[in-house]
Amino acid sequence: METFSKKEKEKLRQKKRKDKEEKREERKATAKKGLSLEEMMVYVDENGNITSTPPDPKRRRDINQEDIQIGVQRQEDREAEDPIRQGVVTFFNASKGYGFIRDLKSQESIFVHMNGLVDAITEKDKVTFEITMTPKGASAIGVKKVAA
């Protein structure tokens, strides 16, 4: 003996099966027949952009294999920067214990926490500091006030 809910569930299954079959048939009917090889070809131009036209052989450039750099620049290849930088305090909230310093060389804003202070600072003070990388980004440590 079948209950009403069993009959309804079976009707839903049949309807889903029928809908799925109809969609499959519709996809088969509207699907493009295979493309020719020329229609499937794509090219890369001299700037690395994908295009449908072949590149111009007159614009071809020879590239030395040793000049190609993959990955990050090696540490020994980089110039040794002066670890002590100079900047201006753009914002400092003493009650919350943090602020920001504008680096005079790179003009980037660097976070500073009161634990990284050597001298007490206020806004618009000229300071020297070192940068350390934290999980949240660059942070200033060893912050000292510069005598004006």
Automatic annotation (TrEMBL):
Superkingdom: Bacteria
Comp. bias intervals (Basic and acidic residues): 1-11, 19-29
Gene Ontology cellular component terms for the protein in this record: cytosol
Segments for region (Disordered): 1-34
Keywords of this entry: DNA-binding
A GO molecular-function descriptor: DNA binding
PROSITE patterns reported in the protein's UniProt record: CSD_2
Annotated ranges, domain CSD: 84-145
InterPro entries: CSD (IPR011129), CSP_DNA-bd (IPR002059), NA-bd_OB-fold (IPR012340)
Record-given protein name: Cold-shock DNA-binding domain protein
Lineage: Bacteria, Pseudomonadati, Bacteroidota, Cytophagia, Cytophagales
